[in-house]
Amino acid sequence: MGNSIGIVILAAGKGTRMKTDTPKALSVCAGKTLLDYVVSAALKFAKNSSLTAEIGIVVGHRKELLQEWLQTHPEKLLIKTAWQKEQNGTADALKACFNDLPHFWNYEYTLVACADTPLISENEFNELFKVMRENPDLVGVAATFEAATPYGYGRIVQKKIGFKIVEEKDADDNQRKITEVNSAFYILKTTHVKSVLGQISNQNKSGEFYLTDLFQEGFAVQTVKFSSETPFLGINTLEQLANVDKLIRSKKIQKLMIDGVRFLSPDQVYIESDVEIGVGSVIYPGCTFLGQTKIGSSVLIESNCFIKNSSISEDAEILASSYLEGAIVLKNATVGPMARLRPGTEIGPDAKIGNFVEVKKSKLARGAKVSHLSYIGDAEIGEDTNIGCGFVTCNYDGANKHKTIIGSRTFIGSDCQVVAPITIGNDAFIAAGSTITKNIPDGSFGIGRSLQVTKEGAAKKFLKTKKP
Ligand code: UD1
Ligand code: MG
Q1: Is beta strand 417-419 parallel, antiparallel or unpaired with respect to 435-436?
Q2: Under 8 Å CB-to-CB from 44, ≥6 apart: which residues?
Q3: Ramachandran region of residue 39, left (φ > 0), alpha (ψ -120 to 50) or beta?
Q4: Which of 11, 166, 234, 336 can pair with 319 through a Cys bridge, CB separation 3.0 to 4.6 Å?
Q5: Which of 26, 84, 86, 90 has most ligand 1 atoms within 8 Å of its beta carbon, as the pocket-test mutant?
Q6: Together in a domain, 199 and 315
Q7: What confidence score (pLDDT) does residue 466 get?
Q8: What is the chain's Cα-based Rg?
């Protein structure tokens, strides 16, 4: 099939050098798996090129986890998987792809990418493909770069015609000195792959079938040397994972600063790849931003806040040491210091959540206030309602959760409990210290506490007196 490409992503390896049981391709780097990054670069390349393209991921070690990952991917229809039963090397992995997905033989080109290289982008794929297209006699190109530390990479041994790649383990002393190394990103004519792949042997120090043997002296193959090694930084150890994670995060912060976000101490903020922060926002030191968090413009986030999968609208303020997960905070609301918003919470515009307040799966309307030491669970609270200090929604009877509904402009005094399910109307007033178990209609006054007894002069009976 002319003008078409099969993109094969090798992800079957266990990642022995990582020393963990998670398949290496699913290791998380700045909030996304290594595979997420590579697949997203491949999809961008495929969509922006004029080629008919399909992605095949070779899975192996704990393949069910990779298949689960694929089920949640928004572009899963464009992606197939192939199973490499034993991890016998990168050439064996490519074979597994053609075994399980034989129609990949029909694509004019085959692009091979490794799943352990998260900084790769569509630019590298474009550049490789350009060289291939401009030189129709070539049967393959390999992306290479000058490595600051070539240890561990396959070395490029240039020949008069073509080149070969020698792995670290198999290299002699002279070859080890070569600094041009293999990135393990290639584009090949599929006909070339068909004629050579079956002949690759495993007679080398690792006893593995090396994909690098598709490149040999005498073949019409060429290296495409990139000026920076950064896009190709491969992850084989936890230390490399930590270094690349750090690089992705610091690039992200740099970009946000260019876009107008103020970080008082950029090195002391942990931020994952997909987080968005709007212009004019100010971030104090010690904050953590995770997952699909979206922060609008001119938002203030004070020190040591933890914010995960949450959305915060413009002009809101999240004061020091607050913990937000799966929460929505709307325009100009204030949260904290030391507040906790749990999943399913929505804090309305101009609303206020003060210190030591926990809110779970509840919606507070515009201007509602819960300023001190309270628990709001499974509740709806109307506009401009004010809730005093020490309020508790008793939402759980030991077996089931129940809802509390409180209307607008209602006032609840300090130290009250409401036993759910319960509805308190608009413009109601609940006296301090009340335990409310029955619904309170609109405009009503509710009090639920025992009567006070005062015995004049009786205090001395109860006061301790000092013994001489
Ligand atoms: C590979 C290259 C090396 C290159 C380096 C760049 C080979 C033989 N070597 O080495 O020249 O400099 O990448 O980062 O290709 N995989 C499978 N099945 C297997 C083995 C590996 O799917 O049986 C997958 C891994 O999951 C990984 C990729 O192939 O995503 C590369 O394997 P890895 O073990 O990381 O190869 P390197 O030693 O890094
Ligand atoms: Mg590798």
Answers
A1: parallel
A2: 121, 122
A3: alpha
A4: 336
A5: 90
A6: no
A7: 65
A8: 31
Is 372 a residue of the active site? Answer: yes
Same domain, 172 and 195: yes
Run of H or E including 44: helix 34-48
CB-CB contact of 329 with 310 (8 Å): yes
- The number of the ligand nearest the C-alpha atom of 14 reads 1
Instruction: Give the pLDDT confidence score for residue 467 in this predicted structure.
Output: 67
Q: Give the integer Cα–Cα distance in Å for 4 and 6.
A: 7
In tens, the pLDDT along 368-420 reads: 999 999 999 999 999 999 999 999 999 999 999 999 999 999 999 999 999 99
Specify the amino acid at residue 232. F
Q: Please indicate, yes or no, whether residues 248 and 117 belong to a single structural domain of this protein.
A: no
Instruction: Give residue 283 CA to ligand 1 midpoint distance, Å.
Output: 40
User: Rounded CA gap, 442 and 436, in Å?
Assistant: 15
In the prediction, which pLDDT does 8 show? 98
Residues 210 and 243 both lie in one domain = no
Give residue 55 CA to ligand 2 midpoint distance, Å. Answer: 20
Given the structure tokens 């290299």, which residue do they identify? 171
In DSSP terms, 156 is beta-bridged to: 165
pLDDT at 468 over 80: no
Residue 304: strand, helix, or coil: coil
- Looking from the CA of residue 23, the nearest atom of ligand 1 is 26
Task: Please spell the DSSP secondary structure of 195-226, one letter per residue.
Answer: HHGGG----STT----GGGGS-BTSSEEEEEE
Q: How many whole angstroms from its chain centre is CA 444?
A: 49
* pLDDT band at residue 1 under the 50/70/90 scheme: confident
Q: Is residue 454 part of a domain?
A: no
CATH number, position 313:
2.160.10.10
- The tens digit of pLDDT for each residue in 29-53 reads 999 999 999 999 999 999 999 899 9
> If you count them, how many residues does the chain have?
468
Question: Looking at the 3D structure of the chain, how many domains does it have?
Answer: 2
- The answer to whether position 464 is within a domain reads no
Distance 236 CA to ligand 2 centre (A): 5
Structure-token pair, residue 372: 């001190």
Rounded CA gap, 307 and 290, in Å? 6
The pTM score is 0.90
Domain ranges, residue 87: 4-232
Same domain assignment for residues 293 and 187: no
Any residues with Cβ below 6 Å from ligand 1, and which?
10-13, 24-25, 58, 60, 84, 87-90, 92-93, 114-116, 153-154, 165, 167, 181-184, 210-212, 234, 236
| Whether pLDDT at 464 is above 80 | no
Pairing of strands 422-424, 262-263: unpaired
Structure-token pair, residue 384: 């401009």
**Of 73, 192, 372, 402, which one is the catalytic site residue?**
372
